[in-house]
Amino acid sequence: MATLWRRFVDSKNLRNIGILGVGTLVAQAIPVLISPVLSRIYTPEDFGVWGVYGACLGVLYPIACGRYDVAIVKAKYQFEAKGLAILSLAISLAFTLLLLGVAGISILTGWQTTASMGWLVWLLPFHILLSTVIQIYINFANFQERYTKIAVAGVLRNFSQAGFRIGLGALGVLRSGLMLGALSSLFVQLGYYLWYFPLRAFQLGRQSIMRVVRLVASAHYRFPLYDVPGTLASLLGTNIPIVIFAAYYGKEPTGYFTMSTNLLYMPISVIGASVGQVLYRNSSTMGAAELRRFALRIFWTLLVVGGLFHAMIFFFGQRIFSVFLGAGWAVSGEYAKVLSIWTCPLLVFTPFSVLFLSRNKQLVGGVFNAVQTVLRIAAMVLCGELLLGASAAVLVFALIGAGVWVVEGGYLLKMMRKR
């Protein structure tokens, strides 16, 4: 066991995880550290608006380029990765134009979401476009194993986002300050990527762009065909209940809910971004036996670390949130205690969901996501219609999420053990 651990520590894989892990840890620590400042500048209602806006953003931007951006990491050749990047960008531009049309229709028809977001509905398509372009750069950097660049860009984004949000709040731009601060930080991150990966880095030389794009589109057809529906189902299951929650319980409880989920997602983001990206890349290059040993060592580590973290939140969450954010945010601590039932298996198993992609099991992953989505949305609507309290709705949300992730995690463990 000691020999295996020493070999793991000395491996290139751990160095890559360490680079991404430290970078992501620093990047995610910034929002955590400024949360006490933001919670005293912005109200729960402001965070409620951000929760609805962020839910719409979270659903749409990951599918804005047909998931072809994810295929970049699996590319075997430079021209293939470049072709996928160009294809992803073209699809995301078309998707942005479509969203602008939808935004105009939503205002003309007076949809409920527009009433909650106001003029911010026009901001959303451009926010999605910038997020998608950055995700293309992240996957291209992952393909080239430029993990330091990914880590530094994440730190720059969150550091600038913190500055913009505090500055806008100090200037009195409260209701839209959280959204504008997040959007402004994307320009900083994009500028960093353009400095190291200028547009000429995606030139294909003498090869025809259209020919390469058609080639990679047909070679990776599984991503838009299977991964988009599966990913959309997963994102709907995570984000749409927030919109439904806001419709039934109002902006203030939604603000508490958003704050608790944001803080609980910090460790999940750190682990998902670092372990998941390296595991996905290695799952395309490692042999089956080597990948299985590597993945199982990660699983046991996450199980111990995640269990300890969530035990602390479950028993002391309300006290921690009250001290950290202020007495007015004690409700967020209550929600966090309940949500830890769900985020514990989520933290442990999220990095391994990339196995659905690397082993061409997108359809299976999509089924898990669809089941979770249907159950969550139905449960949230039922809680609202039965006039159950907000705390009861959060509990149902957490229990359904935990149940599906335990079953899905068992399936992923079975996949890891297969030769």
Account of the protein in words:
The chain is mainly alpha-helical and 419 residues long. It contains 17 helices and no strands.
Keywords:
globular; mainly alpha; 419 residues; 0% strand
Label the overall shape. Answer: globular
Query: Helix fraction?
Result: over 70%
- Biggest β-sheet, characterized? none
Per DSSP, the total helix count is 17
Q: What structural category characterises the helix and strand content?
A: mainly alpha
Oligomer: single chain
* Contiguous uncertain segments of 5+ residues: none
Order of helices and strands: HHHHHHHHHHHHHHHHH
Distance between the termini: 21 Å
Query: Could you give the count of β-strands?
Result: 0
* Average pLDDT number: 82
Radius of gyration from the alpha-carbon trace, in angstroms = 21 Å
What fraction of residues sit in β-strands?
under 5%
Layout of SSEs?
Blueprint lengths: L1 H8 L2 H30 L2 H17 L7 H4 L6 H32 L2 H6 L2 H24 L3 H24 L6 H20 L12 H11 L2 H28 L1 H33 L4 H38 L4 H20 L5 H4 L3 H24 L4 H28 L2
